[in-house]
C-alpha cells in the first residue's frame, strides 16, 4: 500500500473514511422510518407505504425500528358527516346564545332595556339562527329521504329480477337510513327549541312588564320627553 505524507496523506484519509454527515443522515432516516397499519376487509394490514386510494382512511403510524405507535389518523369524514357536524355546531351555538341571553336578562333586565322593543331585539339573533337551522335540517331530511328511496328502489328492482343485492348497496341503504333518522331527530330538536324560544320570549316580556309596574321599575324607566 502506498504511503503518503503531507497534503496527500490528508486527502487519502478523507477519501477512505466514511462521510460522517451521510452516515448520521442514514441512521436518522432508519430511525424515523414508519409503518402504516389499517383495517382492510376485517384484517389488519401493515406496510411501509400507504396506497394512494387509502389516503383518507383511518390508520396507525408505527415506528419501524421500535415497534411503538407514533400517531393515528382518523378517516376522512363523508359529506353527510360533515353536514351533521355543522348542524351539531349550530345547535351548540344556539344553546350558548340561549345561556348568554338568559344571563343578560337575569342580571340587568331593567337597566339594560328601555322598552319591550329593545328587549325583543336581544332575541332576534337567536330566532334567526334557530329558523335557519330548522330550514337546513328540513332540507337535509328531504334530501336523505329521496336518496334512500332511490337506493331501496334499486334494491327492489334487483330482487324482482332475481339478482342479488350487492353488499355495498345494502350497506349504503343502512347507512343512509341511519343518517335519515339522525337528521329527523335533529330537526325535531330544532323545532322544540323554536317553540321553547317563543315561550321564553313571552315569559321574559311578561316579567319585564311586571318589573316595570313596580315602584323600582318605574324609577328605572326611560324619561319621557316633554311635549313640544
Structure summarized in a few sentences:
The protein has 228 residues and is an alpha+beta fold.
Rounded mean pLDDT is 79
Shape: elongated
Counted by DSSP, the helix tally is 6
Could you name the ranges where pLDDT drops below 50 across 5 or more consecutive residues? 222-228
Molecular structure report:
The protein has two domains: 34-76, no CATH class; 79-219, no CATH class. It is 67% helix and 10% strand. It has helices at 7-16, 20-31, 79-112, 116-160, 167-213, 215-219; strands at 34-40, 43-47, 59-63, 69-73. It has a four-stranded antiparallel β-sheet, with no helix packed on it. β3 and β4 form a beta hairpin.
Topology:
Elements: H1 7-16, H2 20-31, E1 34-40, E2 43-47, E3 59-63, E4 69-73, H3 79-112, H4 116-160, H5 167-213, H6 215-219
Antiparallel strand pairs: 1-2, 1-3, 3-4
Overview features:
228 residues, alpha+beta, 2 domains
Amino acid at each position: 500500500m502506498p504511503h503518503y505524507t503531507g497534503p496527500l496523506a490528508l486527502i487519502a484519509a478523507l477519501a477512505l473514511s466514511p462521510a460522517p454527515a451521510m452516515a448520521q443522515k442514514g441512521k436518522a432516516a432508519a430511525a424515523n422510518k414508519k409503518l402504516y397499519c389499517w383495517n382492510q376487509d376485517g384484517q389488519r394490514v401493515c406496510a411501509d407505504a400507504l396506497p394512494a386510494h387509502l389516503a383518507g382512511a383511518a390508520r396507525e403510524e408505527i415506528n419501524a425500528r421500535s415497534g411503538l405507535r407514533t400517531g393515528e389518523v382518523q378517516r376522512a369524514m363523508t359529506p353527510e358527516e360533515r353536514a351533521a357536524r355543522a348542524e351539531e355546531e349550530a345547535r351548540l351555538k344556539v344553546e350558548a346564545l340561549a345561556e348568554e341571553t338568559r344571563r343578560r336578562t337575569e342580571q340587568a333586565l331593567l337597566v339594560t332595556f328601555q322598552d319591550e322593543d329593545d328587549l325583543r331585539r336581544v332575541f332576534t339573533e337567536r330566532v334567526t339562527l334557530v329558523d335557519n337551522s330548522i330550514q337546513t335540517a328540513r332540507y337535509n331530511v328531504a334530501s336523505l329521504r329521496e336518496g334512500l328511496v332511490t337506493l331501496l328502489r334499486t334494491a327492489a328492482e334487483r330482487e324482482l329480477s332475481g339478482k342479488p343485492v350487492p353488499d355495498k348497496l345494502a350497506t349504503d341503504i343502512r347507512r343512509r337510513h341511519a343518517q335519515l333518522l339522525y337528521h329527523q331527530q335533529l330537526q325535531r330538536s330544532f323545532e322544540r327549541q323554536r317553540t321553547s324560544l317563543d315561550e321564553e320570549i313571552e315569559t321574559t316580556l311578561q316579567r319585564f312588564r311586571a318589573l316595570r309596574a313596580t315602584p323600582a321599575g318605574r324609577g328605572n324607566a326611560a324619561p319621557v320627553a316633554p311635549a313640544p
